[in-house]
């Protein structure tokens, strides 16, 4: 795991605690949306409303217009309004700091709560997104059919707690730049020696040859 942590540290970059409210909003906007579109919608929205109070004051139509690039914008606008209202009424305008409380917010599930705790509050928890899941499977850390919670438990078991934030940020950037969903850049990957996907692929031609020659 030392090599993996070293590599992920390189990709994690500088770790700074985010703004829990903005992390939560971006997470809602990111559902079923490409990263660039989420970033665009978040930028537009935060230029007008940076807090639950400010979002609550926006008219629904205006909010829809601001977040339109994220897609499913009507649904997401209603959801954001509900979340802002709940946070204002029940939590005095502060995003909850525990998983139990976060899960009580409308439409907030395991993944969003982990992302808010980790990136927003800097609380150690492995937040499993598509990059984390894909890389963990390719490396052979989890089974190919593992669900997000299986991945989280496994990663929290193999990495030291102090490295969990590095793992989160590092996996996302490493997944965008190297271990891409399509055409991963395996030849230049510093992890290829320990990667199951890569080594399985390497052994494919020889296995096929052995089978063809009747030795397999
Ligand atoms: S060797 Fe390829 S599949 Fe394995 S971690 Fe690196 S980029 Fe991903």
Number of helices: 12
Structural class estimated from helices and strands:
mainly alpha
Q: Might you state the CATH topology name of the largest domain? A: Endonuclease III, domain 1
Unique ligands: iron/sulfur cluster
Ends distance: 32 Å
Task: Please summarize the sheet with the most strands.
Answer: none
Assigned CATH architecture of the largest domain: Orthogonal Bundle
Percentage of residues assigned to helices: 55-70%
Strand content: under 5%
Can you tell me about this structure?
This protein is mainly alpha-helical. The chain has two domains: 20-120, Orthogonal Bundle (Endonuclease III, domain 1), CATH 1.10.340.30; 127-196, Endonuclease Iii, domain 2 (Orthogonal Bundle). The chain is built from twelve helices and no strands. The protein has helices at 2-12, 20-29, 35-46, 52-57, 60-67, 73-91, 99-102, 110-120, 130-139, 148-158, 164-177, 196-212. The protein is elongated, with a radius of gyration of 20 Å. The two termini are 32 Å apart. Iron/sulfur cluster binds next to helix 9 and helix 12. Iron/sulfur cluster binds at residues 135, 138-139, 178-179, 184-186, 189, 191-192, 195, 197-198.
